[in-house]
Structures are given as C-alpha cells and as structure tokens.
Design a protein that fits this description.
- It catalyses: RX + glutathione = an S-substituted glutathione + a halide anion + H(+).
- Homodimer.
- It is found in: Cytoplasm.
- Its main location: cytoplasm.
- The protein is globular.
- The chain has helices at residues 12-23, 43-46, 67-77, 89-102, 106-110, 112-124, 130-152, 165-174, 189-202, 204-215, 227-241, and strands at 3-7, 28-32, 56-59, 62-65.
- A 4-stranded mixed sheet has the order 2-1-3-4, with helices on one face.
- It is built from 11 helices and 4 strands, in the order E-H-E-H-E-E-H-H-H-H-H-H-H-H-H.
- By secondary structure, it is of the alpha+beta class.
- The chain folds into 2 domains: 3-84, Glutaredoxin (3-Layer(aba) Sandwich), CATH 3.40.30.10; 89-241, Up-down Bundle (Glutathione S-transferase Yfyf (Class Pi), Chain A, domain 2).
- It starts with a strand and ends with a helix.
C-alpha cells in the first residue's frame, strides 16, 4: 500500500512534498485537496487531518500533519539519500536551524504578496493600496538579506555542497511572489544563482511541474470561491487589510 499525500500545489509546503517524493521515486497517491473550493474544510478531510490543513499524509491507518514532519517521515521510511537530511550531527543541525528560522521569517513574509495582489481582491473584490505591497516587500527584503548572510553565505546550498530539505523548503516559499510578478531574485545575484542550483538539483522539468499552478496564479480571477471558505478566512483577511 502506497502512502497518500493530500496536496494542493498552490501551497508552498505541498510543493516541497511533491518535489521530494517525485525526486526520490517515493510511491504515493496524489490526493488533490483544492483549497479555494474549501475541500480542506470538509468532514471527510477532517478524518485525515483534524487541523483541516494541507499537506497531510495517510499511510495505512497512520496519519500525519505538518510539512516538516511529513518530509522527515518520508526520508526515514524510504531511506532517501543522506544529503536531504544528513546523518552528520552538525550538518543535520544546520538543516534544523534553518527550518526553525524559516517559519517566522521566509514563510511568514514571502506568501503575503500573493494575498495582497491576488487573493484578497479575489475574496473581497477590493484592491489594497500599493503602499501595502511595498511594506510587505520591505519586510521580505530583510529576511532575504538574513537568508543570504546567515544561511547561504558563500556555499552552493544552505548546508554545503548538496541540496537539503532546508533548500527545498526555502525555494518553494520564494517562488510564491514570483507568481504575482514580484521578482525577488532580480538584483540579487547570489540568491538567483542559488535558485538555479536548486532547480538543477531537483530537475528543471519537475520544478516547473510543481510550480505550474503558482506561476499561472493570475488565472484565478474567474474562479468561484467557496462561501464557507470566505467565512472561514474573513478574520484573517480583515487583519491583513488593516
């Protein structure tokens, strides 16, 4: 029995899991959970993940939430190449260090451009002033500077000469603003070169397959949003629009 992965490739962590599983030839059944149709809020999906978020994993009777936990579970279960999550204590600590920092920095900031330029107008019919986007991009610029100086430095990848889970989690987040025309790699040669190396390491065709939806995110303008999802997100949207 293969594992089931519940994913929506518009979600950054879902793309990380998709790339990791495909790149490592992990057999899995892709269970598409369309977030914009509110499928993650269904009672059926709640049996897989009571948190009602993607990604989620089901392996027989075992279920698991949270992208990092799922990545580590898959890496151990399928004994993936060591470079993804090194056995060397200090290299592994570097992956852990980045993943700990990632959530309140790169992940916290990189996705906001998508909300401001596409999702908030889609959900509310209102556009936000350009100053709001600039504020978000300024916050992201601080995180990117820290990413380059602290984590990337002069190395090909975050941990050294080979790609790791840290690079994978970082790149999927940083592709989010690209989809709405905010090219964060422009005028950042070190970051741009790192992106190219990551793409080469996972394979350009797989990279494009994983990011096809996000790179065409503007096509969402005509989609019908699930009313339950609108109600569910209303408090979050009001906070972001302030």
């Amino acid at each position: 029995m293969v594992v089931e992965l519940f994913l929506d490739l518009r979600s950054q962590p879902c793309r990380a899991l998709f790339i990791f599983a495909k790149k490592n030839n992990i057999p899995f059944e892709f269970k598409h959970v369309e977030l914009l149709k509110g499928q993650h809020l269904s009672e059926e999906f709640g049996k897989v993940n009571v948190l009602k978020k993607v990604p989620a994993l089901k392996d027989g009777a075992f279920t698991l939430a949270e992208s990092t936990a799922i990545l580590l579970y898959l890496s151990r279960k399928y004994n993936t190449p060591d470079h993804w999550y090194p056995s060397d204590t200090q290299k592994r600590a570097r992956v852990d260090e980045y993943l700990s920092w990632h959530h309140t920095n790169i992940r916290s900031n990189a996705g906001k451009a998508l909300w401001i330029k596409v999702l908030i107008p889609l959900f509310t019919g209102q556009t936000l002033p350009p100053e709001k986007l600039q504020e978000v991009m300024d916050e992201l610029a601080i995180s990117l500077k820290q990413f380059e100086e602290k984590f990337l430095q002069d190395k090909p990848f975050i941990v050294g000469s080979e790609i790791s889970l840290a690079d994978l989690m970082a790149i999927v987040e940083l592709m989010q603003p690209i989809g709405v025309g905010c090219d964060i790699f422009e005028d950042r040669p070190k970051l741009s070169e790192w992106r190219n190396r990551v793409e080469e390491a996972v394979g350009k065709e797989l990279f494009q397959e994983a990011h096809e939806l996000i790179l065409n995110i503007k096509e969402l303008s005509n989609i019908q949003i699930d009313p339950q999802l609108k109600e569910h997100l209303a408090p979050v949207l009001r906070k972001m629009m302030k």
